[in-house]
Amino acid sequence: MAGSISEAARAKINLALHVTGRRADGYHLLDSLVTFVDLGDALEFWPSEADGFHVEGQFGALLGAEHDNLVLRARDALRQLAQNLGCATPPVRIKLVKNLPIASGIGGGSADAAATLRGLSRLWKLDLPEAKLKTLAVSLGADVPMCLASTPLVARGIGEELTLLPDLPAFPILLANPLVGVSTPEIFRALTKRNNPPLPPFPLEGADWWPYLHNLRNDLQPPAEELVPEISTVITALETSGAGLVRMSGSGATCFALYHSQAEVEAALSRLKETHPTWYLAASHTLTGSQA
């Protein structure tokens, strides 16, 4: 629409997720290698006489009550922060095109919230202090700060301590989700060990990342496969598709496969669509730091 601003809410992929400890307040400490994919939800913002919110897209009907949507929580939190700093925040209409599965381990809701912060900051012409915006992002969810950056990075702490990785290469990728419910709290409760080793030192500049990635893990994957057997089915299907690396992202149920060429991704996607027509399947590529 004329005068509108668009923002991509790209899918977040945990190439590795090491659970390294647990704080006294119950939050788990993580060491996660994160990248983003050139697909995801889409948001559009434009000035209006009154606030409005519209959801469409493949998974739009599955979202919860409007008042609890992370997009609206992000809008309201950003508006309050901006007004506290004396900035104008006139009414806005927001459209969310929900292309990603709900609660699927690839940061859908968090990416939507982060895209809202970016989009409304542009629409309202805000220039907020970075520290205040980061604090606001953390208050919306542990994954929101990394989705706000939306570039390859390492996330530590509960997800708020970020180190950008501009040299992480892009990889052809296939996402697969059996569209079954996954309870993140249950998966964390099922962990048998919470003081696992952190990420090892990164490859030297120009080195091959494939051997490094193979030595990493997702500590949430074993309990997730135990609680949701369909995840094991997805992992097996991806492993037999010619992938170079297969792993679960976040707390699931989305799993990913990395390939050495885009042609391999497209061939695997075609085969899996025939054998598993009810799954969410999407082929793309991850982003480098220069692309984000």
Automatic annotation (TrEMBL):
Active site: K12, D143
InterPro entries: GHMP_kinase_C_dom, GHMP_kinase_C_sf, GHMP_kinase_N_dom, IspE, Ribosomal_Su5_D2-typ_SF, Ribsml_uS5_D2-typ_fold_subgr
Domain GHMP kinase N-terminal: 69-148
Segments forming domain GHMP kinase C-terminal: 217-275
Entry annotated with the keyword rRNA processing: no
Entry binding sites for ATP: P101, I102, A103, S104, G105, I106, G107, G108, G109, S110, A111
Catalytic activity: 4-CDP-2-C-methyl-D-erythritol + ATP = 4-CDP-2-C-methyl-D-erythritol 2-phosphate + ADP + H(+)
Keyword ATP-binding on entry: yes
The entry's keywords: ATP-binding, Isoprene biosynthesis, Kinase, Nucleotide-binding, Transferase
Gene3D superfamilies assigned: 3.30.230.10, GHMP kinase, C-terminal domain (3.30.70.890)
Molecular functions per Gene Ontology: 4-(cytidine 5'-diphospho)-2-C-methyl-D-erythritol kinase activity
Source domain of life: Bacteria
Function: Catalyzes the phosphorylation of the position 2 hydroxy group of 4-diphosphocytidyl-2C-methyl-D-erythritol.
Recorded family membership: Belongs to the GHMP kinase family. IspE subfamily.
Name of the protein: 4-diphosphocytidyl-2-C-methyl-D-erythritol kinase
UniProt source species: Rhizobium helianthi
Gene: ispE
